[in-house]
Write a structure and sequence with these properties.
8-stranded antiparallel barrel, mainly beta, 2 helices, Porin, 188 residues, elongated
Length: 188
């Protein structure tokens, strides 16, 4: 009986030391570009599986067709984003000997973005945007290619609220909107 207890204790110790407690990085910085913009971000560790992503960048818009006064055009407008992320599969990735550096993994997040009407870069003069705030639960993945290059994709559906009164309209408006992103980036 004594040998059985010692054997179980020894095996339990082996299993405990084999258990991985993977964690997001303490802080990571990067620059990402996508089809419709460029963003600088920081992710700060909140817990082993949670990180707070803050982001400054430019979202872009492209339009064209016969229904617009301007036949085609583009604009870049500033965006500020705060996004808590839960990386839910880090331990599983470590167990399968996959990378988690640079917060490489699957995540669920709550994307909160604000587009202020500070300035607009466009191929037309005197362009402006209506300020808005966008909130969307999002599912995504991030993977690394080498030591510094990564790619990221995500999808979610959320609510966008336009501050239209401040732009001279009669009413503020809200609308359901889709959040899809595909980005490639450089981690510093």
């Amino acid at each position: 009986m004594k040998n059985l207890l010692w054997s179980l204790t020894f095996l339990g110790t082996i299993f405990i030391t084999q258990a991985q407690n993977a964690s997001v990085e303490k802080s990571t910085y990067g620059l990402q570009i996508g089809v419709l913009g460029v963003w600088f971000h920081n992710e700060a560790k909140l817990s082993n599986a949670m990180a707070l992503r803050t982001e400054l960048g430019f979202d872009s818009e492209i339009w064209g067709g016969d229904i617009y006064d301007n036949p085609s055009g583009f604009l870049l407008t500033p965006v500020i984003t705060i996004e808590p992320r839960w990386y839910y599969n880090l331990n599983k990735r470590v167990h399968k000997s996959r990378r988690i550096d640079g917060n490489s993994g699957n995540f669920l997040s709550l994307n909160v973005s604000y587009h202020p009407d500070w300035f607009v870069v466009s191929n037309y003069k005197n362009m402006s945007v209506v300020s808005d705030i966008f909130i969307a639960p999002t599912w995504g993945i991030r993977r690394n290619i080498g030591n510094h290059i990564n790619y990221e994709t995500g999808i979610g559906i959320g609510y966008r609220y336009y501050f239209a009164k401040s732009a001279g309209y009669l009413e503020n408006e809200g609308d359901v909107d889709l959040n899809i992103h595909l980005r490639i980036g450089y981690r510093f």
